[in-house]
UniProtKB/TrEMBL annotation, chain A:
Organism: Thiorhodococcus mannitoliphagus
Topology of the protein relative to the lipid bilayer: Multi-pass membrane protein
Official protein name in the record: ABC transporter permease subunit
Family: Belongs to the binding-protein-dependent transport system permease family. CysTW subfamily.
Keywords: Cell membrane, Membrane, Transmembrane, Transmembrane helix, Transport
UniProtKB/TrEMBL annotation, chain B:
Taxonomic source organism: Thiorhodococcus mannitoliphagus
Subunit structure: The complex is composed of two ATP-binding proteins (PotA), two transmembrane proteins (PotB and PotC) and a solute-binding protein (PotD).
Function: Part of the ABC transporter complex PotABCD involved in spermidine/putrescine import. Responsible for energy coupling to the transport system.
Enzyme Commission code(s) on record: 7.6.2.11
Entry GO CC: ATP-binding cassette (ABC) transporter complex
Record carries keyword Transferase: no
Protein keywords: ATP-binding, Cell inner membrane, Cell membrane, Membrane, Nucleotide-binding, Translocase, Transport
Protein name as annotated: Spermidine/putrescine import ATP-binding protein PotA
Record gene name: potA
InterPro entries xref list: AAA+_ATPase, ABC_SmlMolc_Importer, ABC_transporter-like_ATP-bd, ABC_transporter-like_CS, Mo/tungstate-bd_C_term_dom, P-loop_NTPase, PotA-like, Transp-assoc_OB_typ2
PANTHER family, sorted: PUTRESCINE TRANSPORT ATP-BINDING PROTEIN POTG, SPERMIDINE/PUTRESCINE IMPORT ATP-BINDING PROTEIN POTA
């Protein structure tokens, strides 16, 4: 190492650091911030019969003055019409129920895989990931074949003699729950599995050694230590389910009103881009604010606990 | 007579009528074809500091796990204080373990860790706090009580682990490589502390270690294990001075081994013709038939070194200095005997190294007396 090479290598190191940090920022800027700003801009515009179908945010008027129009009509409209509030509440409710169901179903599965013998684990994980090899849309379509009145499930139940006439499952809220549960379960299982495999088994032995029965050891040791996995899995399920559109559209009926579906209708059927954008902004705010608050809380909790 | 009585009190294993506190009766544990623990019987007495010593894979850890209840024996029984605990699950045994990795609960403070066992036993809150306080005081970690394990140093964690395992006042404390994760300096001071603690509390300790020095310093008795079996059980002194087989002799400290055949018996001594030449006269009470192959084991510090060439004779070998290792307090000399065998011996450096006359390639002779070593039959 010659002394002369010092400053130069330091400079190039600074450059490479800049590039390393820069790339993700540029990525986030181009693909997240910019679209968000565009949507925000559309949400304060007015619908118009034009291409694109909304008014511009700013305009140059004759004497070189810049006119900026901010229109809050869309947000007010959403506040006035109960259907939007109902859709929001219903989406949150469905997301909450599905997250809890995914957790109830996914936790034992993740636990079973994490504690299975090493040679089984890869196979079991494979079975969880395997559905991803088929298109999401096709898999949801397949459920129509299973759930409709002449479908697999009804035929099977009729054959068993449990029911004497086909049940109406398709195009009900139940079908939506089934579809969401099926589609999002892997997103709960995978982070939980990742967390549970890292759990040191000697901790459980230590708990047992100190007089703790296995069931109680699970509650006192495994469960609290898997909290990060539970939070990660729940977020991965909750957030996309609130905005879910495909599943309620294909499997749901008239009563399964969700924000995602409403948004789609405003965009494509009603051609009201500003209203749809306003819905999207509200949805985002609804999801981001609680999570930011939660993270804050977690941080202050970590700080106060020495 | 008084002396022998006192000795009996201090060494209950000398008394055939003393009831063992922990009795391991013909315990075998197999994993598939592997005999991890192979027909082990052991009596450990109340208040002992007992060490299971052996290299990795010798079965010592499995034996400890059998005592804790994490494994169940394939055959054999285990009794603690007269009660058969063979089929008792770990949470119901009057036994606690200090894990090699300490296994502290990362989501609990030091205090909560120590309290955990007492909570499981449904000890009332007031008493629980008192006992936790006692333990934290005893191990001098009171000021750490609100910290979490990831905010502690290795030595501090070890203390917390010890406090946690002692808090329930177990009948038996199992320690898996208790000092293994500490650095050398800390290990030495902790050794003495552990012994003091054990004597103060009167709890029977069973520890697993691969470190012979550690076992020698701390234990009342040591069991040397190999391939799932116990080779020898005895006090540290007896194990060092009178090993009963080559394996024990070689495992503890260094040793010179001379193979040979028994030629003659004279009273309590035997004459042995060494394979590499020379005749050894050793004390042995074992009735070796003439002609049996034996091995004589002599510790390196029990030999005398003389300057200059000499005739080979009874208990005397001549050779040249091949290697010298200066360790500060002692020096290790490797001497190539004329018969071709390498003899290792240690000398205390009474004089500064620079004043010592012995150097490489020098003619020397090595001597020892009949009581300097033992005659091993296997």
């Amino acid at each position: 190492m010659s002394i002369g090479a010092g400053p130069q290598s330091q400079g190039s190191r600074r450059l490479s650091r800049l590039v390393n940090i820069g790339i993700p920022y540029v990525w986030l800027g181009v693909f997240f911030l910019l679209p968000f700003v565009i949507v925000l801009q559309i949400s304060v515009a007015e619908p118009a019969l034009a291409q694109p179908p909304y008014t511009a945010l700013w305009e140059w008027i004759d004497d070189g003055l810049l006119q900026i129009q901010i229109n809050l009509r869309n947000f007010m409209l959403i506040g006035e019409d109960d259907i939007y509030l109902a859709a929001f509440l219903n989406s949150l409710w469905v997301a909450l129920v599905c997250t809890l169901l995914c957790l109830l179903l996914g936790y034992p599965m993740a636990y079973a895989i994490a504690t299975a013998p090493e040679r089984w684990r890869v196979l079991l994980l494979m079975l969880i990931v395997l559905p991803f090899w088929t298109s999401f849309l096709i898999r949801v379509y397949a459920w129509i074949g299973i759930l409709n009145s002449g479908g697999l499930l009804n035929t099977f139940l009729l054959w068993l003699g449990v029911i004497d006439q086909p049940m109406q499952i398709l195009h009900t809220q139940t079908a939506v729950y089934i579809g969401i549960l099926y589609s999002y379960l892997p997103f709960m299982i995978l982070p939980l599995y990742a967390n549970l495999t890292r759990l040191d088994p000697t901790l459980l032995e230590a708990a047992e050694d100190l007089g703790c029965r296995p069931m109680r050891a699970f509650v006192e040791i495994t469960l609290p230590l898997s909290k990060p996995g539970i939070i990660a899995g729940s977020m991965l399920v909750f957030i996309p389910v609130v905005g879910e559109f495909v599943i309620p559209d294909l499997l749901g009926g008239p009563d399964s009103l969700m924000v995602g579906k409403l948004l789609w209708t405003e965009f494509f059927s009603n051609q009201d881009w500003p209203l749809a954008s306003a819905l999207a902004i509200l949805l985002l705010g609804l999801l981001v604010v609680p999570f930011v608050l939660m993270q804050r809380m977690q941080q202050t909790m970590d700080e106060t606990q020495p | 007579m008084a002396v022998s009585n006192e000795r009996r009190l201090l060494e209950p294993w000398q008394d055939p009528k003393a009831p063992p506190y922990l009795r391991i009766d013909r315990v075998t544990k197999t994993f598939g074809d592997l005999y991890a623990v192979d027909d082990v019987s052991l009596n450990i007495f109340k208040g002992e500091f007992f060490s299971l010593l052996g290299s990795s894979g010798c079965g010592k850890s499995t034996l400890l796990r059998l005592l804790a209840g994490f494994e169940y024996p394939t055959s054999g029984r285990i009794y603690i204080d007269g009660v058969d605990v063979t089929d008792v699950p770990p949470y119901a045994r009057p036994v606690n373990m200090m894990f090699q990795s300490y296994a502290l609960f990362p989501h609990m403070t030091v205090e909560q860790n120590v309290e955990f066992g007492l909570k499981q036993d449904r000890v009332a809150k007031k008493e629980r706090q008192e006992r936790v306080g006692e333990m934290l005081d005893l191990l001098k970690i009171m000021e750490l009580r609100k910290r979490r394990p990831d905010q502690l140093s290795g030595g501090q964690r070890q203390r917390v682990a010890l406090a946690r395992s002692l808090a329930r006042h177990p009948k038996l404390l199992l320690l898996d490589e208790p000092l293994g994760a500490l650095d050398k300096r800390l290990r030495e001071s902790t050794q003495f502390e552990l012994v003091n603690l054990q004597e103060r509390l009167g709890i029977t300790f069973v520890t697993v270690t691969h470190d012979q020095e550690e076992a020698m310093t701390m234990s009342t008795r040591i069991a040397v294990m190999d391939a799932g079996q116990i080779m020898q059980v005895d006090t540290p002194t007896a194990i060092y001075e009178f090993p009963n087989c080559r394996l024990t002799a070689e495992f503890i400290g260094s040793v010179n081994l001379f193979e040979g055949k028994v030629m003659e018996r004279e009273g309590d001594q035997v004459l042995i013709e060494a394979r590499h030449g020379g005749i050894l006269r050793m004390r042995s009470l074992h009735p070796h038939p003439l002609g049996t192959p034996v091995t004589v084991a002599i510790r390196p510090e029990k030999m005398r070194l003389s300057d200059g060439p000499a005739e080979d004779g009874v208990n005397r070998l001549s050779g040249v200095v091949e290697d010298i290792a200066y360790l500060g307090d002692v020096s290790i000399y490797r001497i190539r005997a004329n018969g071709g065998q390498l003899v290792e011996m240690t000398l205390t450096n009474i004089q500064p190294r620079t004043e010592q006359a012995l150097t490489w390639e020098q003619d020397v002779s090595v001597e020892w007396s009949p009581t300097s070593g033992v005659v091993l039959t296997e």
